[in-house]
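Entry
Fold in token form

___
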Amino acid sequence: MKIRAVVVIDPQGSFTQQLPTQDLANIEFHRVESVAEAKQLLCKQPCTVGLVVFDSPTGLTHEEVEPLVASSSMTEWIAVVAPQALESADFKAFVLSAFHDYHSLPLDLLRLLVTIGHAWGKARLRLSLNGSQNADSSRFGICGNSPLMQAFFKRLEKVINVELAVLIGGETGTGKELVAQAIHKHSPRSSGPFVVVNCGAIPANLIQSELFGHEKGAFTGAVQRKIGSIEAANGGDLFLDEIGDLPLSQQVNLLRVLQERSISRLGSTQVIPVDFRIIAATNVDLHEAVQAGRFREDLYYRLNVVHLCLPPLRHRDGDVRLLAEAIFRRYSTGNKNCRTTGFSTAALRAMNAYHWPGNVRELMNRVHRAVILSDNKLLSAADLGLEAYADEAQNATLIDARSSLDRTIVENSLRANANNVSRAARQLGVSRVTLYRMMSKHNIAAVH
């Protein structure tokens, strides 16, 4: 019989002492004393069920538990509560919105085992629905179980520990900053700073001061010394978002920094050594910008040492539901005004039919708005503003089904042949030209 691992957050330990250590051959309890220990345990050993013990006025608070419950999308949580705790309206609302169920003290072992069994069954159902029973559906803090994202994770894993410049491409809203954060968090520079500069949000006349800093009196309004973003990133990572919007006049200055690894603040001649890794992101084709004279070719090659390209959400087969449920859990947990428990079938159908021009950011906005405004038990397509797409998905034609099948076959063949187009074409029994035409038709890019 499969062992059911259950994490028990029990700071006092009195509840765990009442649990039998034998005669429960298929359940294994893992007691931890704090939320931090629970996070560490879940990273090492996934547990489909978790118990949180609220048995003392000086014990756990819902404020410290809420982030863990919200972020552990693959774990079903059960609150173990002292009866007096349920006298608080806020606490009752928290239990109702954040937990699969609750068990009131004193311990009734048979009743608790039934509750754990129901939670375990629900967790396994969710895992099977997501098509994966391992941690690969969420790596580096990024959700994704589609073939394109699994290939992306493998490439990201190779990049993280390499001291090279990284250029992240992808449409707006795909999560480029999240990838940059993951690179920093899991790299040897994780103990250093992670400094973000949005090149498109800073006026052209201020970008040099933002990057390099200035001395007091360097220009009108410089009333005190300012440390620039490059200097602030010393020992860590500098993330330049929307690098394509950096003015040409500043591109040459950035290039000089990358070559010489030193800066001078505005109004100073002092040379300051800097040690940082640069991560840049863009939603435009920088190679095309180089051809058009909008971006320096030498800087482009300095930044594009390692290239990562995030696929758009519409190409991530199966990920919409996975992401939507994680986002729903994030925004609904702890929201005492939230009445919804998930998505209706029509809503899921509409989300899969929609093309998501705003990508993951748009999905987050639509789900967040629906959680706040909906009074339905299950979120409808109308709650998400996608009612037209529910009907479209239901009336899908044979041509649509054939197109989806063609796309799946081509992607599977490319993946099986390590993205070698010639080998994939031979396997499929078509010419390279035909395969390229199919890839273009279905917007399939070979991920290297």
Q: What stands out?
A: The two ends are 41 Å apart (CA to CA). The chain has four domains: 4-129, 160-309, 314-394, 398-441.
